[in-house]
Amino acid sequence: MKALSKVVVIICFISTIIIFAQKSYPQNYFRNPLPIPMQLAANFGAVRTNHFHMGLDLRTNSQENLSVVAAADGYVSRIKVERYGFGNAVYITHPNGYTTLYAHLNKYYDQLDEYVKERQYKDEKWEQDITFSPGQFPVTKGQLIALSGNTGGSAGPHLHFEIRDTKTEECINPLLFGFSIPDSIAPVISGLYWYDRRFSTYEPGANGIAVKKTGNVYTTDVIQVSSPTISLAIKAVDKANQGFNLGIYHAELLMDDQVMYSFSIDKVSYDDTRYINGCIDYPKLIKDKMSIQHLSSLPGMKLKNYSPPDLNGIINLKDENVHNIEIVLKDVNGNTSRLKTKIRLNKTSDQIFPTNKMVKANEGKTISTENAEINLSKNAVYDALNFQMSEKSSTNGDAVSNTIVLHSPYIPVHDNYALKIKPNRKLTNEEKANVVVLLDYGSDTHVVKGKWNGDRMESEFNRLGTATLLLDQNMPSVSPGWKEGALITGSSLRLKGTAKIGDIVSFRAELDGKWLRFARMKDDFVYVFDEKCSKASGLHTLKVTTVNTAGNTNTQTFTFQR
């Protein structure tokens, strides 16, 4: 009876935490920043590659240039203009201790837009990160601050909206602030997984269990496991009322009515957002595009305010009896789903044993091959793995080293590791100046300009894959969207950038000898005509200088008429 009372107290305590989290933030202080009802395309804490989603993605009905208004009184404290990430963004600091952010914008309101434009021309730099004092751009609740868009790392028109603690800059779940978004649908569960935790969640990996729904409760057949030490993970989404797959807000795991683990996504800082890789089955996300969240703590997962430190979710089965399992999922509105099942230790299987190249969480490791070395910090991995590193001949015609195989792109690393690679032939000093490192992690590549350390090039990456030294003697270039000397009747000029290896890391355009403001839109460079190039101003000469990752510089000249 005492044990049951203790369980009830624990469950009530966790429920109280959820209710308190929602009621400790000011309710109805912030308004909807759009002129249409709030509809979510993504919520706070949704799983993304290498980060949590840090705000709300508000639908704009697939349109751009909707009015974006200040969610409350305050002042514009910062703006950003960048190629990826937020694109064009506005930060508004409010007197109640919070800051709101509005991202992927097309245009700032006129007064602010003109200020930013003047700064860009003064600095001769398109990308900007400007902070303001309280008296420069004050705003009132509901005041127009921008037009919505699709800039930066956006895959479609929408407004990204965040609420941050002004002092700590932690992002807080905006749904805890009382926005009116109808939601009567409980989270949907589609999969359950167990892991042998005697060594690592990565080896041998996930064991899937079919889930079925009976009435209002999800169930599975009795789970037969072959390890006395296991953990569980859940595949589920929050559907809300709008059809989009949203992230899970809160989960609890109980065995025999005892709480083993719980998490709630109330707040996350950008410094910690990469810890999502220790909260999910990363191999499943990268390999199979499946979002599966662990109901346990991985040894290297150090995200604050996510799960209670005394509940690690590791299940130790000391007998072969059948044990009851219950998983409870909740959204911010309290809509609840439950999965009830049973678990039993069957015949114990063989255990995976570490090798001399084992990398463990919270312990650094240096591993070498004949021509390469990787140095992993103590924060590099979330769980143990037998690290595999080897060399093979490269098939890339620009390669000047073997290809170094760094375990697998399906295993995450938390911070940057140092990688040293020796070329496979003697390079001249001129050639050394044009060597870059290509990391191929399957879904994409990353090229960096490393530094020579003796006879090896040293670079840093935060993903695994295959790495190769390349000699890049190719020039970057841009291609105009008009014929030489043509009369331009449209509202803009567009140049398409090309770099065979790496990227265009520097772009400068001069019109008749003066800097011209081109915006970077993915791989394109776009100039919208302004007073710097008015109509009926005759033949113009546009000089464009580009630099690629390797440092190769190319200057091109184009002409056009207005």
TrEMBL record:
InterPro entries: Cell_wall_metabolism_enzyme, Dup_hybrid_motif, M23ase_b-sheet_dom. Transmembrane segments: none annotated. One of its GO terms (molecular function) is metalloendopeptidase activity. Residues 52-120, 133-167 form the M23ase beta-sheet core domain. SUPFAM superfamilies: Duplicated hybrid motif (SSF51261). It comes from the Bacteria. Pfam families: Peptidase_M23. PANTHER family: M23 FAMILY METALLOPEPTIDASE, PEPTIDASE-RELATED. This is Peptidase family M23. It comes from Chryseobacterium shigense.
